From TrEMBL:
SUPFAM superfamilies: Aquaporin-like
Family named by the database record: Belongs to the MIP/aquaporin (TC 1.A.8) family.
Protein name, as recorded: Aquaporin Z
Keyword NADP in annotation: no
């Protein structure tokens, strides 16, 4: 097992365990703002722990953006995506095992931090809103990542900038979709939650990948890159 592969597994585990765990165990106490910061702080933790090994993508949409920006080989992209999905699934399983230790826990009621939209969800936003939010938010997120990690950017600040951006995205969008901007983060909980989470999953795969791809292409064109300036 290569070091970058293992780093992406661990990093994505950190993201899902902290972020979704905050929603599952502490959602009523810390609310949407607290969950937003949990996801953001998880990115910071992962970035400064495994970032020097793999770049801490933790997200297939990020890896796709990096690939299309010309900063990653296609073989590495496949390896990263597999690692990210594994990390998310293992983290979701760990959360489920912990949650099952509470007699009153019911995954159908409390959930597992899965992404949803439509009737019965917090904001009851429709499909168009979900697609637009996830696509736009992922585009902005990957644009920040590519900009914060380019050669002439202050390297020590990248993890903080990226983490705060993810927290801000959650502050805007938790009520819309629960915020994915990351297919792996959505796949992990959906596998165990089933039902609507699985039927809606395509939205949280397609929209983030489109947003990440667009960010990568625009960076490659030089419109958001300062590297040749």
């Amino acid at each position: 097992m290569s070091k970058p592969f293992f780093a992406e597994v661990i990093g994505t585990f950190i993201l899902v365990f902290f972020g979704c765990g905050a929603a599952v165990f502490m959602g009523d106490e810390i609310g949407m703002l607290g969950i937003s910061f949990a996801f953001g702080l998880a990115i910071v933790a992962a970035a400064y722990s495994v970032g020097n090994i793999s770049g801490a993508h933790l997200n297939p949409a990020v890896s796709l953006g990096v690939l299309l920006a010309g900063k990653m080989e296609s073989s590495a992209f496949v390896t990263y995506v597999i690692a990210q999905i594994i990390g998310a699934i293992v983290a979701a399983f760990a959360l489920l095992m912990i949650a099952n230790g509470q007699p009153s826990y019911d995954i159908a009621v409390t959930g597992l931090g899965q992404n949803l939209y439509g009737p019965g969800t917090a904001g009851e936003y429709g499909l168009t809103s979900a697609l637009l939010f996830e696509g736009i938010a992922t585009f902005l997120f990957v644009t920040v990542i590519l900009g914060a990690t380019q050669a002439n950017a202050p390297a020590m600040m990248a993890g903080l900038a990226i983490g705060l951006t993810l927290a801000a995205i959650h502050m805007v969008g938790i009520i819309i979709t629960g915020v994915s901007v990351n297919p792996a983060r959505s796949i992990g909980p959906a596998i165990f939650a089933g039902g609507q989470a699985l039927s809606d999953l395509w939205v949280f795969i397609v929209a983030p990948l489109v947003g990440g791809a667009l960010a990568g292409v625009i960076f490659k064109m030089g419109l958001t890159s300062a590297e040749d300036a």
